[in-house]
Known about the structure:
This protein is α/β, with parallel strands linked by helices. The chain has helices at 36-43, 56-68, 83-97, 112-122, 137-142, 147-155, 183-196; strands spanning 25-29, 48-53, 73-77, 102-105, 129-135, 160-167, 169-170, 179-180, 200-203.
Amino acid sequence: MVDNDSVPQDQPPSSTDFSAKPQSHALIIGGTGMLRETSLALATRYDLVSVIARNSNRLNDLWEEALHAGLRINPLQLDYKDEEHLATCLQDLQTQFGPVKTVVAWIKSNAEEANAIIAQHLNQQSIPVEYYDVLGSLHYKDFEVDEEEREALFARYPQVHYHQVKLGLRQDDTDDEPRWLTYEEITEGIVAAIDSREDEFLIGDSEVSYF
Ligand SMILES: NC(=O)c1ccc[n+]([C@@H]2O[C@H](COP(=O)([O-])OP(=O)(O)OC[C@H]3O[C@@H](n4cnc5c(N)ncnc54)[C@H](OP(=O)(O)O)[C@@H]3O)[C@@H](O)[C@H]2O)c1
């Protein structure tokens, strides 16, 4: 019998709470901040959405909201800069829930190795995976992500179909200054990018330029 009192309340529930293997499984890396609504939106389209982030309270809130809506979120509390933990976690995830069909990766540029580790693991799956790499505005400012280098990295993993999703600017009227996207627009855009399967997808009306 499970003693509920012994479960720390600020910890997200263990992923072993899900008994059945999902028919369709998505993974969102960094899905509790700007992409929180994206996590929920994808949970309406996939049987299970695994979400990676560090903060257990934010993961727990997301899990609870999904549960109340009858959706399945699998919270994975880890720091993707911890390469060993990330690799183990991906291995366990695939063993427990089967292959991932779609990945949305919102990974900070200070964790470059994370992309390679994830691609390496996904490449061993029994089915191909669509990988949507979300590039934010800081990417344009600091040129921290070399787009061609990133594409070359993923080209080494044929089971992983790489897509770039760029966060741009929205212009409501021709006379208006372009503005940042809202989180709602980002969610709609990511869902549209997944539907389109395009290699490059811009959310917004124009790219961000710092020049
Ligand atoms: N172009 C546009 O129109 C537009 C519009 C809005 C926002 N943005 C961009 O969005 C940015 C805001 O987002 P943000 O990145 O600051 O925060 P954020 O939206 O909270 O995204 C970070 C996500 O990744 C997780 N995360 C971060 N580091 C992690 C790590 N080492 N290991 C595991 N998970 C990690 C965070 O959760 P934990 O912290 O719990 O780990 C969170 O889920 C802005 O800087 C802006 O550039 C752009």
